[in-house]
């Protein structure tokens, strides 16, 4: 395995990279993603979910990437954040679904040992999403770590096969110094679509629709086949030691997800 080669792309000193990026744990370098729950998370009431989702979702197109479109909604935020704070990452409509779906939101917040959670959002991609990394536009809100650090719930999916995938960074971006000159850590970065053989799909087991994946060490993207897929995205800060221990426990529980070949860092 490449071990620490992926750290080369964090040489930028623009202030957005968490110092904990050097918190490398060799036991976790063979994990691209893991299922993290033995419960299939669903809305407390599906009929109410569809009514509210269809009424309140908005369309989001990332700046400079007009061909990429999401339907999205922020369904929960920490009480100390204003709507303006939430808008710093993405211009999303903010609603409070705690009163409608208390069980679902409680299950989502308990998936991994977060130090704090800032917001929970829904996103439905309306076309192909090329490989990218979710960059910390504001270091107060999201950090990158050298182990699986981002949580998603596949809340609804009409696809017959997995569409969310992970892939390695292109080799030219792993060359020392290249990242600083050609890839701003202060902006979204959507890269070329990987070859089919370079995509490692998140194929969830029947007993779970939640997973944690390596955002930063690896890129992620999504195919699109005209069918609906709604993801829950949890934005927050991990509690590093508790988080890493949970990853190690999951790694032992699900040994089949270790070292998936194309996902070595």
Question: Summarize this, please?
Answer:
This protein is α+β, with helices and mostly antiparallel strands and 265 residues long. It contains five helices and twelve strands.
Explained architecture:
The protein is 16% helix and 25% strand. It contains 5 helices and 12 strands. The strands form 2 sheets. It has a 7-stranded antiparallel beta sheet with strand order 1-10-6-12-4-3-2, covered by helices on one side. The radius of gyration is 18 Å and the shape is globular. The protein starts with 32 loop residues before the first strand and ends in a 12-residue tail after the last helix.
**H-E order:** EHEEHHEEEEHEEEEEH
Tally of strands:
12
- Name the beta content range: 15-25%
Mean pLDDT across all residues, rounded?
Answer: 81
- Main β sheet profile: 7 strands, antiparallel
Quaternary state reads: single chain
- The residue ranges in which pLDDT falls below 50 over 5 or more consecutive positions are 11-19, 176-188
For the termini, the CA-CA separation is: 7 Å
Helix content range: 10-25%
Major β-sheet strand ordering: 1-10-6-12-4-3-2
Shape assignment? globular
Number of helices: 5
What's the gyration radius in Å?
18 Å
